Amino acid sequence: LGLHRHVASVGRLDYESEGLMVLSTCGSLARSLEHPDIGGMVRVYEVTTKGIVTPNKISAMRRGVRIDTLKYKPLQVNVLQADKSRTIFEIKCGEGKNRMIRRICDHLCLRV
Fold it and tell me: What are the E-state strand segments in the chain?
């Protein structure tokens, strides 16, 4: 019959990221995953930064960060491991703005 179904991708990965990319032929599922305010999906990220992340920077992430005209909602941040050379922490959030975690870390002078 030669039928072709549209396949929607959910998620973005850049050269320095790894993670899950979902492919779906169900448009409503893809939309609910892309827009957490619709589906209530929480995104979980594990982030490794160079050096020690100060309590002030973690507090800033937990309060929410404004960068230029963008306001990022408060993040749930949990430090998993920290030593002098790096800090590994988990971030949970309901937003999924493009390169959000990288931009927040860069704004706080954290090298991912």
Answer: 8-10, 22-24, 43-50, 65-67, 70-72, 76-82, 86-93
Cβ neighbour number for residue 100 with a 10 Å cutoff:
20
Q: Which two tokens stand for residue 87?
A: 């800090």
Tell me, what amino acid is at 8?
A
As a whole number of angstroms, the distance between CA 106 and CA 110 comes to: 5
How long, in residues, is the chain? 112
Q: Cβ–Cβ contacts within 10 Å for residue 41, how many? A: 14
Task: Respond yes or no: is residue 14 known to be catalytic.
Answer: yes
**Count of helices and strands (H, E) across the chain:** 4, 7
* pLDDT tens digit at each of 112 positions of the chain: 455 678 888 776 776 777 778 888 888 888 877 776 666 678 888 999 999 899 999 999 999 999 999 899 999 999 999 999 999 999 998 887 778 899 999 999 999 8
Q: Measured between alpha carbons, how far is 31 from 93 in angstroms, rounded to an integer?
A: 17
